[in-house]
Amino acid sequence: MDQPANLQDKSASPSAGAAPKSSEGPALSDTKRAPIMRQFELIEAVKAYDPTADEALLNRAYVYAMKMHGSQLRASGDPYFAHPIQVAGILTDYRLDTATIVTALLHDVVEDTSATREDIAEMFGEEVAVLVEGVTKLSRLELQAEHTRQAENLRKFILAISRDVRVLLVKLADRLHNMRTLHFVKPEKRERISRETLEVYAPLGRSIGIHSIAAELEELAFEHLNATARVAIQRRLEALKLENGSAIEAVSPEIERVLSEAGLTARVKGREKTPYSIWRKLQRKTVGFSSLSDIYGFRVIVESEDDCYRALGVIHRAWPMVPERFKDFISTPKSNNYRSLHTTVVGPGGLRIEMQIRTEAMDRVAEDGVAAHWAYKNQSYGFDREAMEADGGRDPLLNLRHLVQVIEHGEGGEDWVEHAKLEMYLDQVFVFTPKGTLITLPRGGMPLDFAYAVHTEVGDTAVGVKINGELKPMRTALQNGDVVEIIRGTKREVPTDWRSLTVTGRARSAIRRHIRTSEREEFVRLGKTTLEQTLERGGKSLADVKLTEVLKTFAMPSEEDMFDAIGRGRLSATRVAETLFPALKGQLKAGPERKRIGEEPPRLFVRGGGLTPGVSIHFGRCCSPVPGDRIVGILEPDKGLTVHTIDCQTLADFADDDSVWQDLQWTPQAERSAVGAVKLHATLTNARGVLGQVASIIGEAGGNILNLSMAHRQHDFYDVDIDVEVEDARHATMIIAALRANPYVDTVDRARG
Fold first, then answer.
1. Tens digit of pLDDT for each residue in 213-271?
2. Segment 428-434 mean pLDDT
3. E-state strands within 167-273
4. Which one of 56, 107, 399, 506 counts the least CB within 10 Å of its CB?
């Protein structure tokens, strides 16, 4: 939605009015603005296709929108009420019902004026109020970051359109009207608005089949995002017209003649691909402009479905077919109900031309998608679901319901937005379950994508796959027509290197949720074990205390949340123990008399004949030296003296320059009264309770876990990096030896740079 210019300059801009739909390409932002649609013109447009429309309701909504928006102006200087009126005008082109038109007129009044949802419900009914609420942005939501606010707006919007597709139809018309004159918006906002249009709204439009709006949105956004590329493609197209113009003009009559001689009545429409669609194909196929065969496309409209296949046979006999360029979307419609036969032939004059063969009904669905199914039924006007299913047999809103599942699995705004875009923006491949159910996946989809498309539980328990009856690796890319059978295990498994095994946003968001859940369980156990060991050092037991008050102190919702924070190193077990038992303060640390390396001046801990007063000294994080290690210093420009262990791999970078080396030793104070931190790298067996055992071993050996991170989690093993507080090198060696004695610890070593 657009905000009035005198209130706030927002992401939308004024509009050019409702331009007629055209297959010849969308109108761009230099289109002359049409006059504001007058009240009687809007009523006549609606009554032309729906004589039963509630004229009084439409009049009331028109007047109310003008009254509430009053003197508000848009960035172009136009009266603001022109925007909702023109949005309504766009929707009349798609012959939508009265409630949708009224919603278009009122879609901004709750957000931008003093009107409330209750006012809308009282004056125009609950149905309209629900639709208006779905379209209204969360502009008043107080969130910290801009990207978070946008994510929350989009989340609310998708949830709304999953319940009623009319919300999306209004929003698409709203965005289209705004994009037509985006040049009125400040330059710094155009890129963000265009990118949002290209990444979110255009794919949403295609997901329900409204290609006419989606194509115009893409072209308008492309104009602002990459004007140079667009101009270059336009010039190339003009050159091709001059080169092949006469040949192209002769194609349509020639196709009609060939079909007529075969007894088929057909109407042939030629069209030129839009610059953006050419750009997408150039990027996707990584080919040059000259390699594109379908810059010019021809739509062959016949009378019946049988005629589609007859026409295909006639065309293939008349001109040679280009191999691997035939697709049958009549037998297997796209998820948005798109149906057509696609083929590419070497046609008249030796031109490679793309043809789409379909009926008039298929053509309307191809252009208008779900909007094509508004019609009379049972003496009323509205959405005809039965006709939709008869035309394509598929529910175009299924993709939107998949997006709702992505929202439910996502943890944060950016997380689910990333996966939602991924879910919407990829080409499709069609595969089948063993029982013959059609599943649509993005091109390049793999068995795990298929499993999660069937059901989240199937994906979580998938351990193998049969493709066309044969066992195949889980990284096998699925092809059109494959029959896929998922082999399930008895428990949930996290796949090895799951990012390389999935391409769909739905699968990735579900796996990330599963991984988060599994990791949380491990960290909760680790945190609880660490706290128990800390209390034991003070002679206390976790079983003897209630954690209610300490949860309030640290603002933790539950005991599990606190244990998780301890396990992840975000909360110190010592602090929790001291909060539970204030008398233990100072007794649970490595020793009150010991000083931590890094917290005190380094000169307390190291000495050397070559040390110059005033030179900055710090300890290398690459090898984390502790008392007992043999150490050297490296003098680096603008950095000072860095202390390393003698076996640190970083020292190899300075092997050729003796002048930077300084021989250092630990001071007696360091050897007697200091503690430091070492980084341990371990590979552990992926089994229940292993992290807890590791924490217990470290605690029993007198070490204190400062931080822990997990990486390269696989089915059988995973790596952990553990920062452990120790007294000296001997203490660290003792802990490593104790860990190596555990059968679930495959390897463990100190990090050496």
1. 988 999 999 888 888 888 888 888 887 777 766 666 778 888 899 999 999 999 988 87
2. 75
3. 267-272
4. 56
- What architecture (CATH level 2) is domain 229-373? 2-Layer Sandwich (3.30)
Protein fold of 39-224: Hypothetical protein af1432 (1.10.3210)
593 by Cβ neighbours in 10 Å (0-12 / 13-18 / 19+) ranks as exposed
Contact 508, 548 (CB under 8 A): no
CB 562 within 8 A of CB 556: yes
Q: What is the mean pLDDT of the chain?
A: 77
> Percentage of the chain surpassing pLDDT 70?
77
Residue 365 CA to chain centroid, in angstroms?
A: 28
Name the active-site residue from 54, 112, 164, 482.
112
Torsion-angle region of 572 (φ positive above 0: left; ψ -120 to 50: alpha; else: beta): beta
CA 372 → CA 70, 98, 392, distances in Å?
34, 15, 12
Q: Reduced to 3 DSSP states, what percent helix, strand and coil does the chain have, rounded to the nearest 5?
A: 50, 15, 35
b/e 650-677 (16+ beta carbons within 10 angstroms → b): bbeebeeeeeeebebebbeebeebbbbb
Q: Which CATH architecture group holds 398-514? A: Roll (3.10)
Q: Compute the distance between CA of residue 338 and CA of residue 206 in angstroms, rounded to an integer.
A: 10
Instruction: Tell me which amino acid residue 330 is.
Output: I
Pairing of strands 428-432, 438-442: antiparallel
* 512 within 8 A of 405, measured Cβ to Cβ: no
Radius of gyration of the chain (CA): 34
594-753, CATH topology level: Alpha-Beta Plaits (3.30.70)
Confirm whether pTM is higher than 0.90: no
pLDDT given at position 402: 58
Partners of 709 in the beta sheet?
Answer: 721
Q: Tokens standing for 597?
A: 């390396």
Cα three-residue angle 441-446-447, rounded to 5 degrees: 100
Specify whether the CB–CB gap between 619 and 634 falls below 8 A.
Answer: no
Catalytic residue among 2, 93, 97, 111: 111
Is the pLDDT at 697 greater than 50, yes or no?
yes
Q: How far apart are the first and last CA of the chain?
A: 54
pLDDT at 196 over 50: yes
Active site residue 418: no
73, 5 contact by CB (below 8 A)? yes
Would you list the domain boundaries of the chain? 39-224, 229-373, 398-514, 516-588, 594-753
Residue 127: closest CA among 158, 176, 163: 163
pLDDT score recorded for residue 312: 94
Closest CA to 616 of 642, 594, 585: 642
Closest CA to 620 of 597, 646, 642: 642
Distance, CA of 130 to CA of 747 (rounded, Å): 60
521 flagged as catalytic: no
Q: What is the DSSP letter of 145?
A: -
